[in-house]
């Protein structure tokens, strides 16, 4: 039986652990012990009192902490990871900290343990997330496949080269916030047109959900699907023209680029 220890019991760590198969033992630890205890209870998992226990016990150690907390966590668990690597029983470290490269994590540990870097997004909380994954050369194919299985309950898991991870952060990592803003604006438009607020929000959310499903399930390009809705001289083309007047597409592109650049900046800061 595999053992997963999760250092950090926030929303994302909890979301990723929800999808893990029943034949895996899960342990939580957190600076806030009561929070970790509640997270463990909610999943029928177990609670650990320290990060040192987590580092010593886990086959996979999830580092589900904020980027600014990660240096202290890595410094704390480094001696145990070093010892386990020397005895050929090295755990796989799984980090979701934005801006922290695999190389930087290994440098902080002082040796080169197997490290997997992931970038999940908040829809993982309901099993609809995107989890991009990059692995160091020390991670075996068997371990990568096993990790994909663990994470599959939280959404789609996609392998890619680590050089793209900052781009993923800008798109799918930050993207849900952009979509929520669009849903809110879409609902506000419905209210302005006379719909009750609750109806407008319900219709806006379902419209975005349905449109996203159309892209995924039909395999058609979004532009083609847009043209299917757009009749000559109709209501949709009038709305599209208004969006283009406001530089809608350019603004969205700029938002993703700004988030990507910030991820790069954070990475450069951490590498120093």
Overview of the molecule:
- The model has no long low-confidence stretch (mean pLDDT 93).
- With 272 residues, the chain is α/β, with parallel strands linked by helices.
- α7 packs across α12.
- 57% of the residues lie in helices and 14% in strands.
- It folds into 2 domains: 160 residues, Rossmann fold; 93 residues, ProC C-terminal domain-like (ProC C-terminal domain-like fold), CATH 1.10.3730.10.
Overview features:
alpha/beta; Rossmann fold; 8 strands; elongated; ProC C-terminal domain-like fold; 14% strand; 2 domains; 8-stranded mixed sheet; 272 residues
Helices and strands in order:
Layout: E1 2-7, H1 11-18, E2 24-29, H2 33-43, E3 46-47, H3 51-57, E4 60-63, H4 70-86, E5 92-95, H5 102-109, E6 115-119, E7 129-135, H6 141-151, E8 155-159, H7 165-173, H8 175-192, H9 197-218, H10 222-229, H11 235-245, H12 248-271
Parallel strand pairs: 1-2, 1-4, 2-3, 4-5, 5-6, 7-8
Antiparallel strand pairs: 6-7
Helix pairs in contact: 3-4, 7-12, 8-9
